[in-house]
UniProtKB/TrEMBL annotation:
Involved in the biosynthesis of the chorismate, which leads to the biosynthesis of aromatic amino acids. Catalyzes the reversible NADPH linked reduction of 3-dehydroshikimate (DHSA) to yield shikimate (SA). Pathway: Metabolic intermediate biosynthesis; chorismate biosynthesis; chorismate from D-erythrose 4-phosphate and phosphoenolpyruvate: step 4/7; Aromatic compound metabolism; 3,4-dihydroxybenzoate biosynthesis; 3-dehydroquinate from D-quinate (NAD(+) route). Keywords: Amino-acid biosynthesis, Aromatic amino acid biosynthesis, NADP, Oxidoreductase. This is Shikimate dehydrogenase (NADP(+)). Shikimate binds at S30, G31, S32, T77, N102, D117, Y245, Q273. NADP(+) binds at G141, A142, G143, G144, A145, V243, G266. The keyword Metal-binding does not apply.
Amino acid sequence: MKRKENQRADMNITGRTRLLALFGSPVKHSGSPAMYNYSFERLGLDYVYVAIDVGREGLKEAVSAARLYNMRGFNLTMPCKNDVMSYIDELSPEARLIGAVNTVVNENGRLIGYNTDGTGFVKNLEAHNITVKNKKIVVTGAGGAATSIVVQLALDGAREICIFNKKSESFKRMLETIERIKKEVPDTVINIYDILDETKYTETIKQADIFVNATVAGMKPLENESVIKDISAFHKNLVVADVVYNPIETRLLKEAGNAGCICIDGKGMLLWQGVYAFKLYTGKDMPVEEVRSKFF
């Protein structure tokens, strides 16, 4: 996200201004205050958004302060997304399944936790005229981003989800998530496989409608890496989506594009998860195209 300094130097804070914040550590680099405050000003909304450096040890007090000050809500980044679940009152269906929260909304003193990452991913696909309903989707990765995406894909009606990851602690946690998803969304077929089974991996991608990289492979300084080693897996009708946004065109997307795939970079996921959170906070639509041009 592009940084814009002093975006609201002339903002008018009143006795009625509602406070929103980003909790996490570190947060000095975050572009969220500029994006949100620009949108508030553009729509004439009496809110202000700030970034507050809070680690795990101070999170409980920060949430208590949010209640005390009647904040409209707050976003969470690392390392607070999991721990905050113990300090709030209610979880949305996707947050409960994912086991992490990145957005909390104060509804008359009741703090409700959401996870907008998966929705941001799906909305980014929809912005490119791609739907997930009744699709077979391969997801590489089993960390936080992958979990958010897998849950939302299931909730939004994917026919089959095939997850590939190394057998590790995150693999085991994903198995537990899959069991929770199956209880909530029994119509979606969902399985996880060892990514070291290269034949299974390649053949499954060849049969897929959508392929998702939800790992850091391809992100600087790993820009020479790709999660797909055998490029014969690519086919013309395959949609290839990457959560990595630095660089915008990863090695995966470049090779997929050369093979005729439809390629979607990770920048839009950042935008659309913010758009969804903005709607939860304000009930209004963020001026998406203006925000995209100024901050992305």
